[in-house]
Amino acid sequence: MSTPILPNPGLGTFRLKGDTLKRVIHDALALGFRHIDTAQMYDNEQDVGEAIAESEVSRESLFVTTKVWHDRLAPASLKASVQESLEKLGTDYVDLLLIHWPSPDDAVPMADYLTALREVQQAGQARHIGVSNFTIAQVDRALEILGPDALLTNQVEVHPFLQNRAVVEHCQARGLTVTGYMPLAVGKVLEDETLKGIAEAHGVSPAQVALAWTRSRGVVTIPSSTRREHLAGNLAALDLTLGEDELEAIAGLDRGERIADPDFAPAWD
Questions:
Q1: What predicted TM-score, i.e. pTM, was given to this entire model?
Q2: I need a surface site. Which of 36, 80, 230, 237 has the fewest CB within 10 A?
Q3: What residues form the membrane-spanning segments (predicted)?
């Protein structure tokens, strides 16, 4: 079975709500974005759904991702939470449903919540399923539980300062698409001298260089922005090709700087 391709880039919506989020979605769709990434924990699924309903872009043309929070992983709670998400989003299905974080300390057995996730998919409420913030060992366990072709993606933090090479390469070798969140390292890429130098050579922004580097690794990216010109730049970045020497220079920026590291996170690779 060939792995379906996630639209790249996606629109990240973390920390965006209300009228601001709706304006961003309308701008993004007008520019050509078709992948919207949200989550139960973002508390904005209702706003995402309303923006989609207001848009002239058909639901069938969109790729909508949401994620189940780690306090809803018990099977009955997971299924109820998905129904709540669908009602908020105003849709009968999501294109991709992710487990947002593995169950802290395996409080809910992985086999239980992944089986429930697959049952949601089988019921037609999710076209594809995947995971987020899973380690190499957790990805392998998930594939043992569900089978080698079950999961579309592992969504993990990826940016020039946390390149997550082992996880990215392992997932890709196992047939999973990697989705990289926080690709701009919450703006830190804008201040890096190496990225600024490469950007100047191409007449682009350091953010665009970071996104082009992400694409060069075969990673789907979901940057977030509230400004239309930055959204347009994020799209244009995927047409930028970096030279081998530039890619090598960016490879040297990896310093293991993890931004998303809550106390319930797994033991990272």
A1: 0.97
A2: 80
A3: none
